[in-house]
Amino acid sequence: MSGRFAASTKVAIAGYAHSQVERHAARPLGALAVDTARRAIADAGLEPRDVDGVVAASLFPSAGAHAVEDGISTVTAGWMAQHLGTAPRYVAGFQGIGQVSGALTLAVNAVASGAADHVLFYRALHNPRGSYHGNPMREVAGPQQWTAPAGYFGPLAMIALPYNEYLRRYGATREAMAAVLVEARKNGARIPWSYWHGKPLTEKEYLAAPTLADPICRYDCDIPVDGVAAFVVTSAERARDLPHKPVYVAGYASSPPPAARLPLHWTLDDIMSGGAETARRLWESAGIGPDEVDLPQMYDGFSPFVWFWLEALGFCPVGEAHRFVQDGRIDSDRPGALPVLSGGGALGNGRMHGIPQMLECYLQLAGRAGERQRPKATVGVACQSSPHYGGAVVYAAESF
């Protein structure tokens, strides 16, 4: 990517729908996804026949041995296109770095290029029965032979390593991280469809939680859930004729390919150097900088990602995020604070990947956040995954 995104603010989100977020839904994931998709289309003032594009982020994110079955544990774009009751001319699934942000760019580019007029974009997450990241292996070959037998397997070990590096390098503490969890859960508790609706978290409860992979505790992880969110993406021109205020896509960036390491070996230096390049791409694509963003939504599948993204995107200096999040500086209820988790994030909603960040940008910039509406939300950023292995999208309330 070089220079500002050519279709900046020429493509918009026109409507959305979100299912209830539950540990285990009573209905199959495919049925839940189709229902949510149809409600999103109706919310945009359209009929299923108007939708001529379907885009999905369909990765099933378990490190265990669960079966991947379309319509049950995942919902691909092809499956949705078959069951939506329409005949889209553009159907695509994302397989690169950064599922939600990357898949959304497929929808944006399809509209910008004329490949489709109205694109359904969705993410469907499934929580299988049994241990989500259990390791069933009895023997292992290839690169994992050097890590899995020693217990270095799955995302908990992956994030524990750079988090521990950060704590030791910068003198940070778990007490400082408590501010992130309390803020995420406070905001998630306000959202009707959230798994944590009505269930805020105190600092004392956070610090007393059992350790899973030192220094990661239970509440540092987003909880696996069943849930679906869907959006309708169309041109800015068409969106202006639809019922809701458009929210424009101003720019986006995906992370560069990460350094070659052993499986799940994410070092802090890799995260931050890759994140710096992601940020450079993002601000260049949107033609703005972090000082112009008033609604930054940091990704928080694991709590340390909030610190990493804050520093990578330039909202605070490297090594200072653990101080920046304290003393109310990210409190969404405090005037002048930076509302980095005003939508609750994954820690406050459940494991919906980057959907809570994207949805908060849409709701606030469209003026549809209800009692949570912020008075002056104009430019938002939604991050997903790690700064070196994910992506981010800039949203705007107005064209610029």
TrEMBL record:
<dbReference type="Pfam" id="PF22691">
    <property type="entry name" value="Thiolase_C_1"/>
</dbReference>
<dbReference type="InterPro" id="IPR016039">
    <property type="entry name" value="Thiolase-like"/>
</dbReference>
<keyword id="KW-0012">Acyltransferase</keyword>
<dbReference type="InterPro" id="IPR055140">
    <property type="entry name" value="Thiolase_C_2"/>
</dbReference>
<protein>
    <submittedName>
        <fullName>Thiolase family protein</fullName>
        <ecNumber>2.3.1.-</ecNumber>
    </submittedName>
</protein>
<dbReference type="InterPro" id="IPR002155">
    <property type="entry name" value="Thiolase"/>
</dbReference>
<dbReference type="GO" id="GO:0016746">
    <property type="term" value="F:acyltransferase activity"/>
</dbReference>
<keyword id="KW-0808">Transferase</keyword>
<feature type="domain" description="Thiolase C-terminal">
    <location>
        <begin position="274"/>
        <end position="383"/>
    </location>
</feature>
